[in-house]
């Protein structure tokens, strides 16, 4: 069930400081967890960030859509997957993004991969959002 008044979770407060988050974006932070309320009419928007990868998910188990993006300045790609949407990789690029839609209950996840050259990659975070 998606809440009528959605709360958004940010997995790590390191992406934004508690002071600047509260003042500039509506985030309310305590320790490593940040929350904010977003008005979205009939749907709900949830987002989460981990290291330098973020994911935004709109909708519910009936139908969800997701956008994942890289924070900061890095080159690589983002894998995106969730219920009703098999794992796929977005294109390689600077400040990469990936999008997708699906349906069903479960975690919608994105994993950022920074290119180290020579076919090697390093994880840039693995944020997930639960959809039900």
What does this 3D model show about the protein?
The chain has 132 residues and is mainly β. Helices cover 6% and strands 57% of the residues. The strands form three sheets. Strands 7, 8, 9, 11, 12 and 13 form a six-stranded antiparallel beta sheet that branches. The chain has a four-stranded antiparallel beta sheet with strand order 4-5-6-10, with no helix packed on it. The radius of gyration is 15 Å and the shape is globular.
Helix percentage: under 10%
Number of strands: 13
Percentage beta strand? over 45%
Derived from helix and strand composition plus strand pairing, the structural class reads mainly beta
Indicate the overall shape.
globular
Can you lay out the helices and strands and say which pair or pack?
Elements: E1 7-10, H1 18-25, E2 28-30, E3 33-37, E4 45-50, E5 53-60, E6 63-70, E7 75-82, E8 85-89, E9 93-94, E10 97-102, E11 106-117, E12 120-123, E13 128-131
Antiparallel strand pairs: 1-3, 2-3, 4-5, 5-6, 6-10, 7-8, 7-9, 7-11, 11-12, 11-13
List keywords for this structure.
mainly beta; 132 residues; globular; 6-stranded antiparallel beta sheet; 4-stranded antiparallel beta sheet
What is the gist of this entry?
With 132 residues, this protein is mainly beta. It has one helix at residues 18-25; strands at 7-10, 28-30, 33-37, 45-50, 53-60, 63-70, 75-82, 85-89, 93-94, 97-102, 106-117, 120-123, 128-131.
């Amino acid at each position: 069930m998606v809440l009528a008044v959605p709360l958004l979770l940010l997995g790590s407060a390191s992406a934004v400081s508690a002071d600047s988050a509260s003042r500039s974006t509506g985030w309310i932070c305590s320790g490593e967890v940040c929350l904010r309320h977003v008005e979205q009419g009939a749907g709900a928007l949830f987002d989460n960030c981990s290291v330098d990868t973020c994911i935004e998910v709109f909708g519910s188990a009936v139908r969800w859509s997701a956008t994942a993006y890289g924070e900061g300045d890095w080159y690589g790609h983002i894998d995106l997957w969730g219920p009703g949407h098999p794992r796929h990789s977005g294109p390689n690029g600077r400040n990469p993004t990936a999008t997708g839609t699906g349906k069903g209950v479960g975690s919608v996840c994105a994993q950022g991969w920074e290119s180290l050259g020579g076919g090697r990659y390093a994880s840039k975070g693995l944020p997930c959002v639960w959809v039900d």
